[in-house]
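We emphasize that the prediction below concerns an isolated chain of 156 residues; any contacts that depend on oligomerization or on bound cofactors are therefore not represented. The input was used exactly as deposited, without trimming of termini.
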Amino acid sequence: MKYNDRMDEIDRKIVRELQRDASLSHAALAERVGASPASVWRRVRSLEQVGVLGRTVRLANAEALGRAVNVLCQVRMTRQTVEARADFEQFIQSREEIVECYAMSGEWDYLLRIAVRDVADYDRFIMRGVLAHASVAGAASNFALRQVKYTTEIPV
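Result of the prediction step, given as a token string:
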């Protein structure tokens, strides 16, 4: 049984509200979800301990930081060994341009979302980084023209 199955409506409201605004005080959160601040504090701690709630972060504006170009890059590996994948995944963790990475089923092995300054920046990154990696057989890139939807909120 998943922890989600044991969550009551107050827990669900807490998670929804914190996904929208993690800076809410316990008093403000309590008011929004209809519970006491002490109860909300205990529930938030419990949701953190079981892993429903992760770390608190602030979302940065990629365009304001000069990283407005999003590239979706599919990667195919030369080998499917545990060691080759571990080595590639360590490389992924070391590159700040890669903001998301998914191990995939199907024709491609990985899907990367890469945030870069411009096309030349991506060219340097893909040629000297991804394609230079010993475990990479090939890659296909798609440039996002515009963002239609983006959310960090998981349905609860």
